[in-house]
Amino acid sequence: MKQLFTNARVLIPGEITPQTVSVEIEGDRIVGVGATIAPDGHDVVDCQDQLLAPGIIDLGVFAIDKPAFHFGGITRAALMPDQSPALDLPAMIKHNASEGKPDLWSHPLAAATKGLLGNELAEIGLMKQAGARAVATGRNWIGDSGIMLKLLHYCRSLDMPVIVHSEDSGLTAGAVATAGETATRLGLPSAPASAEALSIARDIALVRESSAHVHFRQVTTAQGLDLIRAAKAEQLPVTCGITPAHLFLSDIATSDFRTFARLSPPLRSEDDRTACLDAIKDGTVDVISSGHDPRGPEDKRLPFAEAESGMAGAETLLALSLNLVRDGIIDMHRLFELLATTPAKILGVKAGQIFKGYEADLIVIDPEAPWQVDTRKMAASAGNTPFDKLPVQGRVRAIYKGGKAL
């Protein structure tokens, strides 16, 4: 099957602004991008002067939630190993890799340790053979530095990136908020923001020792981001990510004990939030992901300290991230590097760009389309978003997975 996407503003690698060109698809691959492609023998898709972008690759979700992903323009998702049971065996990797296909690709991340307990390395080599493209520590930090160094050496030999959670558990055990005025006023168990920097500093030291690629899944503090900057200046193989929640909300959002704003890591101070925006602007942050973690009423309608952390973020990921373009912090090309290109590179998949030979995962976007976030109408399996009732702009009008309209 041949298709030709015409009348589109296309995000082309190397171009800062969208270009009005045609995109030719044959089967599930992009075979041409240019202004002079003839429509002969093609099914023509008229994009009506809307934005044609690569499908979003969501790096680090806690559930495969296909309706929410399709609403948000997500065509691939890297599934965290924090499942029941943990993804620490090859058979589990194989099973979860098939979930959602063919109209959504799940990339299950191999558990770094058995049961994600941080005590003994899992069968990482066998899980790579089963299809795992990266290893993850899950929601927890591996406190044993010997185990962590062994993990990094092993993953370096397998050429697999390690995706880590960054909070020193010696400081954060039992905490549900970031230490500061808001936590004190609410009487919430809290941990200092430096718990993040301590864990990052240790892991960077081990990266220096092992040369393994470590992706810090969420870096949310000024101290942590300074450490990432320094590591990159040293040309260490580190990358880092963040979610829109930590870009657009501070710990003030928890002021009414609103459990939908209980996240992991917890929301930070306004100074840290501003530092996160600066890190997006200067290129320190490599990935924006949703952190999609849908939680039902039984997990969220509890006293704040007893509620589970997490938010349903897939549907709002694109619309919230587009605010970074409107506010002049980054351009549209850079936005899709954060949402698609870099996650694809970390996972080692030929997707995330509109380029000849790449997977034809495409989304048609109306960046100005207004809508309102509403927990009662969300496509996600649970609508636990701290952005309820927020007016946003940007809707996915069409989504193509491997050239097939969904």
Entry keywords:
406 residues, alpha/beta, seven-stranded mixed beta sheet, 13 helices, 18 strands, 24% strand, globular
Structure description:
By secondary structure, this protein is of the alpha/beta class. It has 13 helices and 18 strands. It has a 7-stranded mixed sheet with strand order 3-2-1-4-16-17-18. A 6-stranded parallel sheet has the order 8-9-10-13-14-15. A 3-stranded parallel sheet has the order 5-6-7. The longest helix has 17 residues, at 194-210. It is globular. The relative contact order is 0.16.
In short:
With 406 residues, this protein is of the alpha/beta class. It has 13 helices and 18 strands. The strands form four sheets. It has a seven-stranded mixed β-sheet.
Secondary structure layout:
Layout lengths: L1 E9 L8 E8 L2 E6 L8 E12 L1 E6 L4 H7 L1 E6 L10 H8 L7 E4 L1 E2 L12 H6 L5 E2 L8 H14 L3 E3 L4 H4 L4 E2 L2 H6 L3 E2 L2 H17 L3 E3 L5 H12 L4 E5 L1 H5 L21 H12 L5 E2 L8 H4 L16 H10 L5 H16 L14 E11 L18 E11 L2 E2 L1
Helix pairs in contact: 4-7, 7-8
Task: Tell me the number of helical segments per DSSP (H or I, 4 or more residues long).
Answer: 13
- Largest sheet entry: 7 strands, mixed
Structural class: alpha/beta
Question: What integer is the average pLDDT?
Answer: 96
Low-confidence regions? none
Fraction of residues in helix:
25-40%
Span between N and C termini?
Answer: 16 Å
